[in-house]
Amino acid sequence: MTEIPDSHPRKSSLLSRQKMVEAAKRGLLADSAMIAHGRGEAYDYLLGERTTESASLAIREAAARLLDADSPVISMNGNSTVLAGEEAIKIAAIVGCPVEVNIYYRTDERMSGLVRELESLKESLLATSPPENKEAISGVDILGMVSDGRIRGLEGPRSLCSAQGIEKADVVLVPLEDGDRCEALIALGKEVIAIDLNPLSRTSRTATVTIVDEVSRALRGIVDELSGEPEPGPWDNEQVLRDALESMANASIRI
Amino acid sequence: MTEIPDSHPRKSSLLSRQKMVEAAKRGLLADSAMIAHGRGEAYDYLLGERTTESASLAIREAAARLLDADSPVISMNGNSTVLAGEEAIKIAAIVGCPVEVNIYYRTDERMSGLVRELESLKESLLATSPPENKEAISGVDILGMVSDGRIRGLEGPRSLCSAQGIEKADVVLVPLEDGDRCEALIALGKEVIAIDLNPLSRTSRTATVTIVDEVSRALRGIVDELSGEPEPGPWDNEQVLRDALESMANASIRI
Asked: Residue A153: which of A130, A184, A178 has the closest Cα?
């Protein structure tokens, strides 16, 4: 990796970009993953590359709904695994839920590569965690290789999922966009917590709770909130989307 | 290529994405090119994937300044060649100026690949053009392989350019962002016409005339304006940037 000085104002964005470039070389990402990442960079730039107040509320609501769920699951794709895989495992350990690899352009190679990547992040986390956390971390199942479940309403390989993960879940945390899948999960009566930097996307507009924030900041935020015993409240998701657009519009004052 | 139905509202954006994915496979693009393209997609999405009124004014001003220049040049990188190489050659033919390949991450392989790509676009254009246009088209020089010029103010390989192109130019049309280079060119007293979808970028804020529009729409727009004998006027570039941000902010009414 090229060295980026600590003083660089956009250091974390540039580090994320390097992670993506390297993961692409390792074959973990779909062809269009880098383009999706670039879209995220643009929206995040307009947000000022920070978690807005409104996104913080969505992060707390997400933490509360995950704790309150009967069968929560965290659905991970290539980009979210590369950018925030460790945070996903931390959340799963605290909430006591599985992590499921579920990708749009499904190939055996990428599925097994991403499952291996998450297993290896879990091992490193286990090695560096205090003794009292080890049991919870080692209890996190990484699902995805066995496709014994279906997402009704989707066609072909995209309908595949794990019976113990997304199929039986009542609350699905889905970092990053896939409008069709989000709609299908909502149609099945599940709650969807989406993390999507584009407040106008179909995912953002369809999800139960939308966190308009960069995925690693959002998942770190959920980890922090989980320790505070948050309670789910009434939730106005449209307000969150309007707030995000307003923050982006206010980027103009930086000129 | 996957078939995208004509009725798809985002057809041209999806076609551009496919072009980029294919060009990446052919080695024409830098690692981060797809990320840059994604950023462009996001800003364009907020613009409504259309040329705004304010961008139209910038397009006309660009056409006027190219016609008015003593030594104009069109500087092309990987993304702009892939997305709008043919339009660049059309402009060069009408204005009577060279096209120069000039890239941020310079390798011999990519330089020669992009020059070949532009030469081949020139050949196809020549083959399909009416007889009266053939001389102008075949007169377009594709520069870049001979680095006998320097951009003072830049270091290392990025300072290389063609003596007959960017070095001697008084007006440089630069599709797509490179903040350092834009600043260096302006510091040398040149006029820079930038095409950049991010109105907050250093390039956008530094350029003489900024066209906040998708590169192929912008270059097609310049081709159209060139036939109308436009005259350069007084130019408030900050206003264009404010207008672009306002258009993006108005995206919120689409929710």
From this structure: A184
Question: Which residue stretches of chain B are H helix?
Answer: 11-25, 33-47, 53-68, 78-95, 108-128, 131-138, 179-187, 202-206, 215-226, 237-249
**CA-to-CA dists, residue B52 to A232, B46, B217, angstroms:** 43, 11, 11
Q: What is the pTM of this model?
A: 0.84
The question of ipTM being above 0.85 is answered as no
For residue B184, is it within any domain?
Answer: yes
- By CA distance, what is A40's nearest residue in B? B39
* Residue-number span of the structural domain to which B222 is assigned: 53-254
pLDDT tier at A1, thresholds 50, 70, 90: very low
Distance CA A195, CA B74 (A): 40
pLDDT at res. A253: 55
Contact (CB, 8 A) for B11 and A15: no
Residues 6+ apart with CB under 8 A from B208: B65, B186, B191, B192, B193, B235, B237
Kindly report the CATH number assigned to the domain that includes residue A211: 3.40.50.12640
- Inter-chain touch B20–A35, beta carbons under 8 Å: yes
CA distance A75 to chain B (A): 23
| CB < 8 Å to A196, chain B | none
Q: How many structural domains comprise chain A? A: 1
